[in-house]
Amino acid sequence: MINKIREKAEQYFPEIQEIRHHIHAHPELSFQEHDTAAFIAGKLSEWGIKHTTGVAGTGIVGLIEGKNPTKRCIALRADMDALPILEANTVSYKSQNDGVMHACGHDVHSSCLLGAARILNDLRDEWEGTVKLIFQPGEEKHPGGASLMIADGVLENPKPDAIFALHVYPHLPTGHTGFRAGQYMASADEIYISIEGKGGHAALPHQTVDPIAIAAQVITGLQQVISRKGNPLIPSVLTFGKIAGGFATNVIPDKVEILGTFRTMDEKWRYEAHKWIKDFTEQTCAAYGAKAIVEIPSGYPSLFNDPALTARAEGWAKKYVGAEHVHTLDMRMAGEDFSFYTHHVPGCFFRMGTNKDGKEFLAPVHNAHFDINEEAMKVGVGMMAWMAVQPL
């Protein structure tokens, strides 16, 4: 089976490359992936793969049944959305939608899943169970397409016994893969703080309630809250990326807005921290005579790779690409909405190396110069198909 999958990954590579070029050249923002979804659905129809469109808006769910289809169900997931970035590459498949770019590799993920689907469909008489294909919208935008697809029943009828997803990784060379069991990526919550004071002349601060000065106290104090109230053994990051307020050097404004993000690896501490952030901000502002409005909508939970499943997946990867090409990944404080799935069914989110010999294709994701060595897709296509047919 492994040789058949490798041969078909090689055979279909030119077509998968063309698919990737089409998706890359026509990127669409989160929850706007209408043309992308239609293109993917068209390929599934062309290959005779059953699928449902319109899941959570633009999502697609496909089903491939092997022998004894009720024996087990393996889900494979790929995201479809792009980012609001103006592409700086000069390749023939450069984005034709100015200001929108597949800078996080979701075009690669969708192409690899399509390739794996074609292989699995070809070989459906040689493996057991059912494979569920999840083409997901909106990974890059709150509340995350994964949460909406779950609410729309993607993990039912049939319920997956396990779910896998790959992600491009420019830090590893083509042909290499990376895994991490247990906690791998952080929860990601957005913070919106509005501090309402009383504006006035900069020379008469005693007649005002200065929201800029109060904002400085809030930002500094919240760093102490996180470092003093949180268990130091639990990774936590609180970052403020935007402050907006004021009009001139000699005017104290009425209001300041602060936007930030809180990330951690522990779900219990995550919500305790939300309360500390809210309480500290409101009480600090009140002490200076101001009013605080704090909103912390729940974002992505932490991503937990099932230890037993991940150990098996590492073993399968070693057979497919060689033990010397399989690496243990470091924890990451970035967020990923695949995490929603991992809180419902055993999941494994792994990385696929995309640079060329450590010399080319080194631009990081979310960068206007991001691109991959497309030979990496042979590994991505093959690995997804290989994992889908393994016994659990």
Output the number of helix runs.
10
Unreliable runs: none
* Proportion of helical residues: 25-40%
What is the chains' assembly state?
single chain
Structural class: alpha/beta
CATH architecture of the largest domain: 3-Layer(aba) Sandwich
Strand content: 15-25%
Tell me the number of structural domains: 2
Using the coordinates above, name the CATH class of the largest domain. Answer: Alpha Beta
Query: Mean of the pLDDT scores?
Result: 97
* Total strand segments: 16
- N-C termini distance: 16 Å
Which strands sit side by side, in order, in the main sheet?
Answer: 1-2-4-3-5-16-6-15
N-to-C series of helices and strands: HHHEEEHEHEEEEEHEEEHEEHEHEH
Based on Cα principal axes, name the global outline. elongated
Structure description:
- It is a single chain.
- This protein has 392 residues and is α/β, with parallel strands linked by helices.
- It has two domains: 2-185 and 302-388, Aminopeptidase (3-Layer(aba) Sandwich); 189-295, Alpha-Beta Plaits (2-Layer Sandwich).
- It is 34% helix and 25% strand.
- The chain has ten helices and 16 strands.
- The protein has helices at residues 2-11, 13-25, 34-46, 106-122, 145-151, 211-229, 267-287, 307-321, 339-342, 376-388, and strands at residues 50-55, 59-65, 73-79, 130-136, 162-173, 177-179, 182-185, 189-196, 200-201, 236-244, 251-252, 255-264, 291-295, 303-305, 326-328, 347-355.
- The chain has an eight-stranded mixed sheet with strand order 1-2-4-3-5-16-6-15, with helices on both faces. It has a four-stranded antiparallel sheet with strand order 10-12-8-13, with helices on one face. Strands 7-14 form a two-stranded antiparallel ribbon.
- The radius of gyration is 24 Å and the shape is elongated.
